[in-house]
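Hello forum,

I keep getting stuck at the same step: I have a sequence, I want structure tokens, and every attempt I make locally crashes halfway through. Rather than fight my setup again tonight, could one of you with a working pipeline run this one for me? It's a single chain of 58 residues.
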Amino acid sequence: MAAFDIERKSLTDLVNRAGDLDPVLRQRYRREALAEEFYERYVTSRRALTARRPDLLD
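Reply #2:
Ran it on my machine without issues. Output:
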């Protein structure tokens, strides 16, 4: 989860990497709260990128 909190040069890179990891976590750890939290933060990050609003991550 800390990866979402680290300031990065590229939000695109973060969202792409999270997008690769998310399906694996959701498949292997369906009932885990941390997997669900990761998914929610991934979706929020993707929305911020799409809207070009990095302030949505604060």
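The longest helix spans residues 11-28. If your local run keeps crashing, start a new thread with the error log.
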